[in-house]
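YM 10:42: Coagulation factor XIII A chain sequence, as discussed on the call
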Amino acid sequence: MSETTSINEGKKPPLNGRRALPSNNSNEEENEVPEMEAFGLIPRGFNPKDYLRVVDIHMFKEPYETNKQQHHTDKYYNPKLIVRRGQPFQIQIDFNRPYKPETDQFWLEYLIGRYPQQNKGTYIPILVGDVLKPGEWGAKITRKENNSIHLSIMSSANCIIGKFRLYVAVWTPFGILRTRRNPATDTYILFNPWCQQDAVYLDDEKEREEYVLNDVGIVFHGNISDIKLRSWSYGQFEENVLDACLFLMDKAELELFGRGNPIKICRVASAVINSRDDNGVIAGSWDNTYTYGVAPSAWTGSVDILLEYYSSKQPVRYGQCWVFAGVFNTFLRCLGIPARLITNYSSAHDNNANLQLDFFLDDEGKVDTKITKDSVWNYHCWNEAWMTRPDLPVGFGGWQVVDATPQETSDGMYRCGPTSVQAIKHGHVCFQFDAPFVYAEVNSDIVYSRKERNGAQVVEKIDTNHIGQLIVTKEVGGDGMLDITEEYKFQEGSEEERLALETAVMYGVKKQTTQDAAYQPQRDVDMDFQVQKAILGSDFKVTVTFRNKSGNYYTATTYLSGNIVFYTGVTKNEFKKRSFSAKLDPFSSSAFDVVVKSNEYLSDLLDQASFHFFVTARINETGKILAMQKATVLEIPALRIKTQGETVVGKEMSVTVEFTNPLRQTLENVTLRLEGPGLLRTVKKEFRQIPMNSTLVWEVKFTPKRPGLRKLIASLNCDALRHVYGELNVQIQK
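YM 10:58: structure's back
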């Protein structure tokens, strides 16, 4: 037995009685392809050199050459050919002599994975023909000169997404001669939103430039009454990011033949981007302790996270919802699926999917945190991906919600989506995947109830408008905010909204009716409260207002509770309690101020500087209870970024990042990060201390490689202060 056969013997896969070949779910693995495949015994005088032989293959893979230009892949920092499916690309083959179509016969072979099979789309032989049919594999000769031919190759509009190996095979009477394995001819094939037959086809060029080709985005955070925004670097074109994204599909063990289907890719990616149950990309942490990792607020983009995971194969610590959504957006745009990052303000996390969040009050009208399990997130970020849904009835294609933040399990794993936004709007929550959960996130009611001494539940108030008040994404072609609430729900209180709700209930979303709990709302007194906008480290006030619409004199025993909360609405502790009695004159309004001092909250503040106020009031004369809650976020000072001198490709330039400490304490162990897609990979610097009121200045020098409008993004992070960001648009000249 010769050396070579024993090597191959050793590589035989373990057999399994159910299938002839093992599952083919790795793009990385390869099989060995013979250079000479004999038809039988080879006669003595046979010399392969007498036949047509391939000398060289030119892939035209430079960013400035026609393939990458026409396929919109010229921004990828990758030396290999990258094309989009369903659209022709060009290669040139040099032979050892002129090609004679009458007698010479050759064909191309594209292979992917370790066990290529023609019926699975993992082995693709392409014969040379006279015409290219749109959206089907084929090749035709466009030019012949001397020993060379130019070929135009069309890939199928639904072929597998990934990295293919290319061989050229030549027929001889005694066997097939193939080119050697040559990694330089490897070809990446991606989704094609420019191709009408592709499932991800998007017909608006401005939208394609935004949702596929833009490598920076905006994350909207804060809360409904104080919207904040920060930039996020997606960096889908940066070096090795494409390979890292393909590796995620290997990690998720998605069969190669399923990788042409955006629905399947989104579903497995939503599971593999979080580390729960599959050791995926990012470990989540919501408890304000980030030892042995990076605080979620410190990341400025996806590239560091994806590349660290690609090299270490271990979950990267730590993320929260916008980090999961930012990385997911990079993954989708990198593969060519149009995608955008969404923020839902006042997002319901409903533990039992009954379309209502239950807040239980105790005798004093305070929320009983022991038995209240549901929570309202100040905001929650997820993604939308654009695709057709042939698995659903007509009309449910377009934007699909996908969410990689681990909240609840779906089919046994932490994942969510894709679920049709259109189906959510109309209440058709019977269509896969996870529609009831997403419907609840944007449509739940908040029900305040109290247990009487005899054990009866009394519903004190139902708030139908608090959840999903505003759903936004970045506008196309700018940094502004686009309100897309209407894509998820009809106008609150409209006939259509009622109908959508009834439809959702019919399709199995649980909704308890309030009639059974003898609910009579308080009609003759209105209560509201306002929280003054405040800068971190300063005092501010909360103003409670009552409007007595009746002719009666009332007194209201009022309780204000100020809590420091995670942005997920989970309380860490109560830092402010205040009870007072309010006299309410007939037909009049009265206002009461409660002052909050900075020393009451600073020691316990969490990284999103987020407060949650509950105000409950009992009208003593009628026994009725008024209840209201609001979240508020402190203003956090920003980083200032400046550039010095010229900003020209190939010339060193200098950037300074400045920050003034606003707190009445010294900041310790401060980390600064700066990155800019297409400008510079993330740089970090640690500062031991920043005394109060002092200013830190950090200078970074680098040489820009590409012209155009670029964005620099910086973050500052330490235990006492997080979510400090800064950004700057920079025009790099040629």
